[in-house]
Amino acid sequence: MRHLRWAMVAWTVVATLAGAGLMLRAVPAGAQAPAQTPAQAGGPPVSRIAFVDVNRVLARSAAGAQAREALERERAAMQKEFDGKAEEIKRLGEELEKKGPLMTPEVRRDKQEQFDRKRRDVQRLADDLARELEKKEGVLLQRVVLEIRGLVDKLGKERGYFMIVERQRAGVLYGAAEADLTDEVIKLYDRAAPQAPKKP
Description:
Elements: E1 15-16, E2 49-52, H1 54-60, H2 62-99, H3 105-159, E3 163-166, H4 167-170, H5 182-192
Parallel strand pairs: 2-3
Antiparallel strand pairs: 1-3
């Protein structure tokens, strides 16, 4: 494996509203009627289900960009370590190819065993680095998604949605533009993010 791969992971973001009823209920005389929805009050109809594209939030939000930059630095450091080991194996292989015929059987056997051992070590290193990077990726992205969850939950309650789903995990085949809250979540997320101190 020449290059380590990492991918950003989309996480399910669902906000379920408490107290939302689907059936009409009679209001006893003298009791206070529930607040009207915008549709009941003559306003534009409100969709009860919306969605958020978490991949887009991670790609376009300030916090998402910072997470990607941190992951890229980790990936670059790991790639450098891997490339150094791989280059060592390459040199050893070239030495065997060019000088092997001139070596004694014992020396060639030792060199071949050394080459095979280092090649196995590099493969294990690649696997270990990939797992380590995946773990770091999960920690960073989980933090971002947890912060998004709070914003989505608040937005859902304020707008009166029954449910807000994550577009990829929910398998949304079609979603009207007015049901897409992603850009709003990005704006809220950037607004809520702590501002980095300005350099003097």
